[in-house]
Amino acid sequence: AKNDGRNHYRYYSSEMNVNMLERVQLEQRLRQAVIRQEFCLHYQPIVNLDDQKITGVEALIRWQEPKLGIISPDKFIPIAEETGLIEPIGEWVLQQALTDLAHWHSLGFKISMAINVSGRQLLGHDKTSFTCLLKALLQKNNIEPQYLHIEITESMLMDDTEHCMTALESIRSLGLDIYIDDFGTGYSSLSYLKRFPIAVIKIDKSFVDNMLERESDAKLIKAIVMMGQSLELKLVAEGIETHAQWKMLQALGCDYGQGYLFSQPLPAQDLESFLHQQTQS
Ligand code: C2E
Ligand code: CA
Ligand code: CA
Ligand code: CA
């Protein structure tokens, strides 16, 4: 560490202690949360950009801590990954999401479900356990595999390439599509897109945010779309908030989209109402 003078150093170190304390407390609460089942899932519609019709949903976890209120996944998923708690949490997510999906299918809404999966979950201690879990849960809920999608980030592909390849190929052989999340924010090389069994690219929200103001972001999106098309991949844009963003993404050739313009992530009940409304209109 730099010698910035005594006061600055002390300030810095006490702030670190606060963060450590907060983290340790959060970790303890997270252990309790797994036992007490304090999680729920919200579902964000993914729509076809041509007609705004819902084709699927992404499951997004929420933690309702009794004292602290709702805690964002950006805050607790990293802790869950480091502590290994992601394995029971991830299993709960899959079970809940597939139970809800089976219910919507039984009502005649044949939508798909995208699940976020972290590296530790995918690779785990036993390479085949995640695939076995997927297979068992699909069977139990009587869901055809093409309705389930797995979202992974591009950095996962780089971290442990060989294991990742084995795991993704076994998932793919079950008939599930694999999505690359937050595309453009990592450091993946284009050859990875071809080597791995990937079906869909999700263009990160950070590019969509500024695409109208910043020409470089619009150009980047255009390049991602063209590359995706030439590799015969589908494209989903994340974080669409305005009509202008929607129209521009559609013009650029992006297939699907998600964002507050179409719908926020919704509790299961509200998603069901959303589905009923869409079929009426
Ligand atoms: P993500 O997978 O990139 O999910 C998209 C995030 O953008 C979600 O945040 C969603 O609520 C938010 N979002 C969607 N549309 C808009 C929009 O138009 N405007 C704005 N401002 N935000 C929008 P959320 O739900 O807080 O999730 C954050 C991250 O936590 C996710 O990013 C994902 O990486 C992780 N996560 C969520 N659920 C799970 C899970 O079940 N398992 C794992 N491993 N990670 C999860
Ligand atoms: Ca995602
Ligand atoms: Ca994303
Ligand atoms: Ca993200």
TrEMBL record:
Residues 23-279 form the EAL domain. It comes from the Bacteria. This is cyclic-guanylate-specific phosphodiesterase. It comes from Shewanella psychrophila. The chain holds residues 784 to 1064 of 1070 of the full protein.
